[in-house]
Each structure stands twice: as structure tokens, then as C-alpha cells.
Amino acid sequence: MSVRLDATDRKILAELQVDASQSLDEIAKKVGSSKTPVWNRIRKMREAGVIRQNTVLLDAEALGLEACFFVLIRTSEHEAEWQQRFLSTLRARPEVLEAHRLAGDIDYILKVRVANARAYDSFYQALISEVKIHNVTALLSMEELKATTVLPV
Amino acid sequence: MSVRLDATDRKILAELQVDASQSLDEIAKKVGSSKTPVWNRIRKMREAGVIRQNTVLLDAEALGLEACFFVLIRTSEHEAEWQQRFLSTLRARPEVLEAHRLAGDIDYILKVRVANARAYDSFYQALISEVKIHNVTALLSMEELKATTVLPV
DNA sequence: ACTGAAACGCCACGCCT
DNA sequence: AGGCGTGGCGTTTCAGT
């Protein structure tokens, strides 16, 4: 499924990741091409799914979401039905920004953004009431040292 | 520092987070307003720093970045100089997408995206050679169940 | 594949209410 | 503060190389 991307494609992606509001002319100049080919390349990468979404990144603190937790989860349940329930719960909860199934003795990790510790507790109570979980460890972020969506291309 | 946001502002943010390429008219229609006020609100939220960045989200796998690790770090060093070195290293490394300083017995957590396990090992070797670290646990993601940049507004 | 040009749409503002 | 109008820019498309 992987798409062939040449050096120009990668330069375009690098520019778009940094600032997607740039005009085609600006991007074209920076990558050493011109408007039309840049436009065609972007369209192709969109169609191929390399470019997924055009979005804005917001300041979580300005929105009053001042607490960030990483939640390590161990479970004793590994049946399909349990997994489906767990997954639906995560998807339905907007405070869950990320969820990964892991290799090793910890089964899942979540990244959760909430207003404060109390809001985290509500989330936690809701979660354990909906699905059976063996063990939960919450890691509280004190400081976001780095946070980027820019992938190295 | 916190900005006052009313219901319309929040609706606009919700729309922009889902698709930032929508026209002002489209957004205006959806939030029950019209072009000029929507434009003014967006400009203000940009200036206030609520809207940080306009970007594209890429498919990491399509770019060949097929491995994602969460790295739990314990250190015995807590001096300013060590922290500065550690921070510079993280900032300089594009494969480090997130880094948080934590409360509790684990000091830091990183999220790292790389091509494969071998690339992770290079990163790991480079990291421990640059800064003294007491204990490292790497959690390997087997499956990304959820990943969103959309904050609940 | 890139160039040039042309058509359209949208944005960014100013003015007015 | 919202509605209206407009000049100019940006996007999208098409013919030509």
C-alpha cells in the first residue's frame, strides 16, 4: 500500500506540517518547483491517504484542559467481547486523545486530557465501571517538554 | 491568561479541528452565524494563542514510520545542567514526538516514532550516550486504537 | 511532468448600519 | 458588533510543450 514519495513530495509534506496555510506559490518557491505541480502532488498525496487531515492545533491550557495523564492498564480479560467494549468506551470519550495496545506486561496505554484531577477521577470511575480492569497506574504530567505532530519525512 | 470563549467560539473551534480547510461560509452556516463575525472570532483566537497552528496530519505508516514506543525514564540526576542537556537532546530529535516530565517515581515519558525496532535502538543508544539515565522501560505499541488531536471544547 | 494563463471562488478588509 | 460590497489573492483547471 505504501506510496512512492520523492524528495520534492517530502519537502512539500515538511512545509505543510509546519504551516498548512501557506499558499501554493510560497510552498513551490521553497521546494524549488511551481504552483501546478505542487498542487498535483498534494492532491495525489491526499487521495493516497498520506495526507489525512487539515486541522488546527489548539492550546489545551487556554481551553481549561490543564491536566494530562498517561494511564497504564493491565487487564485479565482478553476476549473479543471485552476488547470491543473497551474500544467503544475509549472512542466515545473525547478526553482520551490516544490509546495503544501494547506488547509486554502492560496491556494498554492511554493519554487523557482533562480540566483537573477531579475530572480525571470521573473519567477513571466511569471507565472501571464500564469494563473490568485488573490494574491501573496513572502518570501525571507536570510539564510538557515537547509536543509535536510533525513527523520526520 | 485565559481567554473568554463563548458557545459560538467553541463551535468554530470544533469545526476547525475537524476540518480546517472549510470556507468561512461553511463554518458560519454550521455555527449559525455569518462570514464576518466568524472571521473576526478566528482572528482573535489566533492572536490570543488559542489557535496555535494550522497543520496537516500525515499517515505515519505510509511514510514508513511503523513503530511507536512509549519510553518510561527514571533518572538519578536532578540538576539544572542535566535537565538542560536532556531537554536539548529531546528537542533535537525529530523521532521524539512527545516528552513529559512526570510526578511520581517515573520521571519522564517519551513518545517516539521510528521506522522499526532497529531505529528505536539507535535512538536509545544515542540518548543514553548523551545523558546519564538510571532506568529505561520501553513500551512497544502493537496497535493504535485511537489517536486524535481534537480537544473537547 | 512542468509551464503559462485564464476563470472562478474566497478572503480580508473597509464602510456602513 | 453584524451585514454588505469589493479588490486582490489563491486555487483550480486546461491547453500547450
From TrEMBL, chains A, B:
GO CC field: cytosol
UniProt keywords, alphabetically: DNA-binding, Transcription, Transcription regulation
InterPro entries listed in its UniProt record: ArsR-like_HTH, AsnC-type_HTH_dom, Dimeric_a/b-barrel, Tscrpt_reg_AsnC-like, Tscrpt_reg_AsnC/Lrp_C, Tscrpt_reg_HTH_AsnC-type_CS, WH-like_DNA-bd_sf, WH_DNA-bd_sf
Pfam families associated with the record: AsnC_trans_reg (PF01037), HTH_24 (PF13412)
Domain HTH asnC-type: from-to ranges: 5-66
GO biological process: regulation of DNA-templated transcription; response to amino acid
Annotated Gene3D superfamilies: 3.30.70.920, Winged helix-like DNA-binding domain superfamily/Winged helix DNA-binding domain
Entry GO MF terms: sequence-specific DNA binding
Transmembrane segments: none
CDD domains recorded: HTH_ARSR (cd00090)
Protein name per the record: ArsR family transcriptional regulator
